[in-house]
Amino acid sequence: MKQRIITAVVAAALFLPIVYYSGLPLLLLTYFLATIGLYELYKMKNLNIFSGHGLLSVLFLWALLFPEKYMNVLDTFYYSKTELCIVFILLLLAFTVITKNRFTFEDVSFSILSALYVGLGFYFFFETRVDGGLVYILYSLFMIWATDSGAYFIGKALGKRKLWPEISPNKTVEGSIGGVVCAVIVGVLFVLFTDIKGSIIGITIVLSVFGQIGDLVESAFKRHFNVKDSGNILPGHGGILDRFDSLLFVWPLLHFFHLW
């Protein structure tokens, strides 16, 4: 627990100032976090990201992450973001021939879905900060931290009924409900003390639930590939996906609610 707290404090001290400043530093951080997330998924499946197909997957991810505000750069070359992504998908498929099927159709599918899973979540992280402002990023962070903490402590104290034992044996129904309640408290505080707009209480419930689903999705990945953590870049916490799994589901949904 001590190591987890130290890592969390250090990570927050590095992460939050960049989120506050925004701009190019935040974009570079977004690309860095997403790339590490893709690397972790590749490692789970025992695929080498430092390879031809790995490079194509990273480039596909980077194309997905390309922000709306810089789209005029692509317009200069008469290409759209969608066209770039299609090119990388076709190249990944072509790699099955180049490698004589050592890199299989299943591997291509895994690579594309992994890039989409990580890329879309982090893309909307940056877009939310740029379009919605700092308050919505802080809301999403504190709401998910409250969900995780509430689910852990309330589940430990009151949990009896298993939520989804085949995926995550330690999670309980009581803990899940406790996490939603704690998230709603955070939502109420943001309504009272910020200018955040929208039916935030109902939205908080939806986001808290989907954040927990995002956590379970990553747990399902780890159970399928028989690994404890997605990585070890964050001592006591695991990898980037272990820390951002819930937020990868929350940030797109938060953007889709059109709160700003």
TrEMBL record:
The keyword Calcium does not apply. The keyword Hydrolase does not apply. It comes from the Bacteria. Keywords: Cell membrane, Lipid biosynthesis, Lipid metabolism, Membrane, Nucleotidyltransferase, Phospholipid biosynthesis, Phospholipid metabolism, Transferase, Transmembrane, Transmembrane helix. GO terms for biological process: CDP-diacylglycerol biosynthetic process. It catalyses: a 1,2-diacyl-sn-glycero-3-phosphate + CTP + H(+) = a CDP-1,2-diacyl-sn-glycerol + diphosphate. GO terms for molecular function: phosphatidate cytidylyltransferase activity. PANTHER family: PHOSPHATIDATE CYTIDYLYLTRANSFERASE (PTHR46382:SF1). This is Phosphatidate cytidylyltransferase. It comes from Neobacillus novalis. The lineage of its organism: Bacteria, Bacillati, Bacillota, Bacilli, Bacillales.
